[in-house]
Write a structure and sequence with these properties.
The chain contains four helices and no strands. By secondary structure, it is mostly helical. It has a domain of about 40 residues. The longest helix has 23 residues.
């Protein structure tokens, strides 16, 4: 399964919720970083870390795949690979 197929595959419910939480962290931290008022350096620094964490959580959650939908695809892919000749054969 390549990266595009993995991104398009159905995501389990837990990871959809986790993805939403990550996107919310990303949005809140982006708002704090872009605030037009002067905030303490510590607050802006923490917001930067939250932005990174939210982005990572969202990306990883999007790449998870429901195992019941991948079983058929992986078996099919293994069969196709077994039929292909290798370089040394």
């Amino acid at each position: 399964m390549n990266l595009i197929e993995r991104a398009k595959s159905p995501t389990p419910k837990f990871f959809r919720v986790l993805r939403s939480i990550g996107l919310a962290l990303l949005a809140i931290s982006g708002s704090v970083i872009a605030a037009p008022v002067v905030l303490p350096v510590t607050v802006v620094m923490v917001a930067g870390y939250l932005a990174v964490a939210g982005g990572v959580i969202s990306a990883v959650s999007q790449m998870t795949v429901d195992p019941s939908t991948t079983l058929n695809r992986t078996n099919k892919g293994e069969e196709e690979n077994q039929n292909k000749p290798r370089d040394g054969d």
